[in-house]
Every structure is written in C-alpha cells, then in structure tokens.
Design goal:
Strand content: 25-35%
Shape: elongated
Radius of gyration: 15 Å
Number of helices: 2
Structural class: alpha+beta
Helix content: 10-25%
Largest sheet: 2 strands, antiparallel
Number of strands: 6
Bound molecules: zinc ion
Length: 73
C-alpha cells in the first residue's frame, strides 16, 4: 500500500500505517501518532480514563478535523 497524501503530491511512498477511521494509508511523514485514552464507565454513567493510553494513528486531514472540535470548545 502507498501513502494517500504522498500519492496526491505525485510521490510514491510506502504506507507504514492504516488510519483507523478513514482507512487512508499513511507514510511516517504524514502519520500523526498520538495517545488515545482508554476509558471505562463507572456508575452512574461517568467516563474515567485509565492510566495507560493506547496508540492512535491519524492522518493530517483527520488530525486537522479533530482539532477544529477542540478549537471550537
Ligand atoms: Zn506520505
Ligand atoms: Zn484520515
């Protein structure tokens, strides 16, 4: 698989990860690696984060889209 963002720039780079929600292949340059909090629900419907975060791979497009949510709140 090749990187979608590189392909859009006319470059062929091997994808090192598959973006979880948009399924775009991304190379190391275009991948954004962040922590994803692992949560559990405790009574009554309160969400708490567990101590160890999971790894999350995001492409630049999705990273920018997720950050607009944070910027708006
Ligand atoms: Zn790339
Ligand atoms: Zn994406």
């Amino acid at each position: 698989m090749i990187c979608l963002d590189c392909a859009n720039e006319g470059v062929e780079a091997v994808a090192v990860a598959l973006r979880q929600s948009c399924y775009a292949g991304v190379c190391a340059k275009h991948a954004v690696v962040t922590d994803r909090l692992v949560t559990r629900i405790v009574p009554i419907t309160k969400v708490v984060a567990l101590p160890k975060p999971a790894r999350q791979i995001t492409c630049r497009v999705c990273w920018d889209a997720l950050n607009q949510l944070r910027a708006a709140s």
